[in-house]
């Protein structure tokens, strides 16, 4: 029997990259999946099409997690469509790197609004629907551990994700809701390609510092998300898992 048969899931920022891979992996294990997107309808529709072609159940839901109305609408549509919610993957995120001399209020607010406030608002909206055995997976980043230069704001957002994960694990644990952080290292996605990371000196350095000798692929992260969503991880909460091939 599939690990997530009968479960329902919402993955934010799931139109591409790690979010898309997680949505497809959850569906492959039997979950009905809401594929959230902010602007890329075509991307979300493509993820849904791939899931349904493989016999899975999914639909695309538009909404901006960085405002309360958007977060509430995303969750409401998911619950209306599937009749409940068991798994929330807070994957929506943005990143911009800048030296301290170039940090602006807009640079700060853009990243904190999506990466931190968005996570809080979506979890707030979802929590009233989650019950015993539910799983919240917050996508953090290895940057919270390696703190690279020119990443002060982005690193701060992902460090906040870790702190929030611990606090929510304690707050929601009595209700049987697990909360864990999944922190990828460098992963090859549309985003890291467009940012110029893939094929760069940074890419080569990251691979050379990784014991397993390569950077990550979205499927590497997705399989761990499936584990955290499943009953196999039923005794894990408040944990921060670094999925980086051993790079620290």
From TrEMBL:
Stored Pfam families: adh_short_C2 (PF13561)
SMART domains tied to this protein: PKS_KR (SM00822)
UniProt keyword annotations, A-Z: Oxidoreductase
EC number of the protein: 1.1.1.47
GO MF term list: glucose 1-dehydrogenase [NAD(P)+] activity
Record flagged with keyword Repressor: no
UniProt domain Ketoreductase: residue ranges: 7-185
Family to which the UniProt record says this protein belongs: Belongs to the short-chain dehydrogenases/reductases (SDR) family.
Protein's name in the database: Glucose 1-dehydrogenase
Statement: the UniProt record of this protein carries the keyword Oxidoreductase: yes
Residues annotated as transmembrane: none
Organism: Rhodanobacter geophilus
Highest taxon listed in the record's lineage: Bacteria
